Amino acid sequence: MKTNRTLLLLAVLGLSLGTGCAALQKMAKNAFKKPTLTFKTARLSQASLSDATVDIVYQLNNPNPLGLSLASISYAFFVEDKQVVAGTPAKGLNIAANGKSELVFPANVRFADIAPVVTTFLTKDSARYKAQGSIGVKTPLGVLSFPLAHEGTFEVPKIPQVQFQSPRITNVTVQGATVEFPLVVKNRNSFALPVAGIGGALKVAGANVGNLATGNLGMLEPGGTKELTLPLKINFASALSAANALRSGGNAQVKLDGQLQSGAQNVPLDIAQLLNFRK
């Protein structure tokens, strides 16, 4: 390895001085080993129900004792045959000697740019992508060009599952009652998903009883669930059918007509469940 390094350094020195020496040029060609570029993976580095960042990762193997650098980048990214905004490697300008370096090409995918109805796009399991372009790598022998070409799919974010558990009646008076509505939110994705909030109008036994709102739920872990309890004061005078159901206990139909917000996207929620009201 030391011999190769010495030969390569001598060759680089000769070329930089413009000696034109055929022997040094031949030495450079013999000492320098051409790097290789291979596709490694495609991954979602962040995602919501409005957009996602898709990272296309290539690996460049430099078997030479000298570090290299990128001279040029030409890159385009397509989702479902539509071009989206693509970036260049933030840390990929310098390529380590005697090793492998990751080149990460991020692309921001706004689902509204891909499909006319975002909620329809979110029902897909996966979306097709195509990456194409090239990079130029500076070497002692000049700039070497490597093609960037790969096609595949990435996981489309799924809308979280939202369900009520059995409500609990904590206080009943002549005028009304306070009811605690347990809510379970499950992330059905293999990646974390932000949920800015869930809210909407609530009906019990067909009567409008008020509005529920969770506030910001933060980031749901991959495959994780978040449980919360939402209290609501129900006025019997404005919800007679609900009043009868709550006074007697037992089962009643609960319906939430609302929305779930993730990123910049609001998706409709229509939840209807027959629930047992506990006292």
TrEMBL record:
Any one biological process term the GO annotation gives: response to desiccation
Signal peptide: 1-22
Domain annotation Water stress and hypersensitive response: ranges: 39-153, 162-276
Top-level taxonomic group: Bacteria
Signal listed as a keyword: yes
UniProt key word Signal: yes
UniProt entry keywords in alphabetical sequence: Signal
Family: Belongs to the LEA type 2 family.
Protein name stated in the entry: Water stress and hypersensitive response domain-containing protein
Organism: Cystobacter ferrugineus
